[in-house]
Amino acid sequence: MPVDKKSSVEEVLKREKLAKEFEKEKRSSEQKAIEQAAAKLSAQSLETSPETAKTSKFITNIDIAFSQAKTDLRFYFLNDGTYADDFKRMFQENEPLFKRYGITSQKYLEYIRESFDRYKKIHDMMPLDPMKPKHFKYVEDSISELVRMFNQRFGK
User: Fold this and answer.
1) Is 20 exposed, middle or buried (0-12, 13-18, 19+ CB in 10 A)?
2) SS3 124
3) CA 92 to CA 68: how far, in whole Å?
4) Closest C-alpha to 43, from 67, 61, 71
5) Which of 26, 57, 123, 155 measures 20 to 30 Å from 44, CA to CA?
6) Would you give per-residue pLDDT tens digits along the chain (156 residues)?
7) What is the pTM (predicted TM-score) of this model?
8) Distance (Å, rounded) from C-alpha 80 to C-alpha 130?
9) In this structure, are residues 155 and 127 in contact, taking their beta carbons and an 8 Å threshold?
């Protein structure tokens, strides 16, 4: 009696196909995020004067990271109020320092999320509670403390 041996070739081909589809979907979502950021910047440049439009014509990594994060449920609080713009401004103010220590815009966003999660855990808040000015101040202080620690530890 011949024993039916299942070939793993089909399974490997199926995994490769799924991996290719995942990469394709990832690229398309990144492209959409870039297009959204570009559309937002062009809309802002139409509202502002020509001088400011010239300075903001390039899409930066932080713009891409924030537009991707706004579609991610873990960063739901960025859609409330002007918190996203405030966090983006803080990143841009400290960007040379962050670059020097290898903190990318994605790592920065993760740090913001972790800091807000810490605040929610300390104060027994629900997981999807909205960010309020008091909460923003805590996260802002946390980022300032991170910058201060970098300067103190690595010297400046």
Assistant:
1) exposed
2) coil
3) 17
4) 67
5) 26
6) 555 566 788 888 888 888 888 888 877 777 777 777 666 666 655 554 444 444 445 667 778 888 888 888 888 888 877 888 888 899 988 888 888 888 888 899 999 999 999 999 999 988 888 888 898 999 999 999 988 888 888 765
7) 0.59
8) 7
9) no
Residue 138's nearest CA partner among 74, 77, 61 is 77
CA 123 to chain centre: 24
Nearest to 128 by CA among 74, 86, 51: 74
Please give the structure tokens belonging to residue 68.
């991707």
Distance between CA atoms of residues 32 and 68, nearest Å: 9
Find where tokens 């300075």 sit: 55
| Rounded Cα distance, 98 and 137, in Å | 20
Q: Rounded CA gap, 19 and 25, in Å?
A: 10
